[in-house]
Amino acid sequence: MDPVNSFVLAPIGELHLPPDAHPTKGALMRQTSRLAKAGVVVEGGIVSFVGSAAGAISHAPRLDRIDLGKFLVTPGLIDCHTHLSWAGNRADEFVRRSLGETYEQIAAAGGGILASARAMEAIAIEELTASIVARCDLLADLGTTTIESKCSYGLTPEASLKELRAIQDAAAQADQTVVTTYMGAHAIPSGETREQFIKTLLETMIPAASKTSRFNDVFCEEGAFDVEESRTILEAGIRHGMRPKIHSDEFNALGGTEMAVSLGAVSCDHLLQVTESGIRALASGNSVAVTLPGTALYLDKQYADARRLIDSGCAVALGSDFNPGSCQIPSMAFAMGLAVSKMGMTPEEALTAATVNAAAAIDEPSGTLSIGERADICVWPCSHLEEMIYEFAFIRPQMVFVAGERVV
Question: Which residues of 150-162 are buried (b: 16+ CB within 10 A; e: fewer)?
């Protein structure tokens, strides 16, 4: 009997792998490896061989073998930015935006994040957990093998703890790895002053969230939190062992990117309005530039200038930003296609952005299928990477493995 989660994939029509650098910056993002008639051996859920088909077969002649001679194989896709935990929906806002209202106008009128916050307060934890598990299942079907989920709509201590608990309970049931980011600093809740809420956030919510959250995120934007407030919030997370992240330069360039890089942020996300100063900070620092093209499409905004970010030497990642208000697009393959068609990235850069750089943006040691790495693998019903990108609007993987276990 074969060991659990052990098998040979050979021959593979095209095995396409990103660079090993973690993260990969600038021009190195294009230096992917394209292997024809390739083979991968997985033993106990871990990659033990990568190379030729003949080499893989001889490396483990007794293991079951899957013939993928007509297919593309990549590492599992990594979604480093989602708001996967939400209640209700905001379909009415989608229609209102289509008729001319802006995201900012809807938020100022009590909609947007505050609408999701009200729904979060009302939902039972069991229902919330089940909805998160269902979304994880959807993402698995689309090829996402590692997910970052933000706790971002519970804006009271009680709702925040409920949301965190639901994410943890869902993570225990999901097929994928689920990484939790705390984002209590998403909006000022109704009925509270700015000063009161930030005090509660610093003294109560962030300390409680630090027990289960790897990162602390903040929405640095007009109408949300300014640069100095964002600095205070991120520094509080650092004191409690949470690495900083930031939503910055989405609608307005306030200087949040530069501030977050100075604090050692693991990533700066959105960047639609990033300035030359912000780009220089990202290029010289260690923060990953996370771009979210699905949100730009959904909100009809300009796309982040990924071409300029890469050419300036930044490490660029892709995320879906799957959330109830500004992006109902869960597919990372779709994000890759938008990155190529709208943001000036090459297919190779898009693969790097959706694997190794996305892993770096959530401090996960995965994304390359290197020997010794967890066997998170996607098998695509096409012959090469360019065809996958070409079919981005509808393509789904033929098979998905997480730690060597076939989940699709």
Answer: bbbbbbbbebbbb
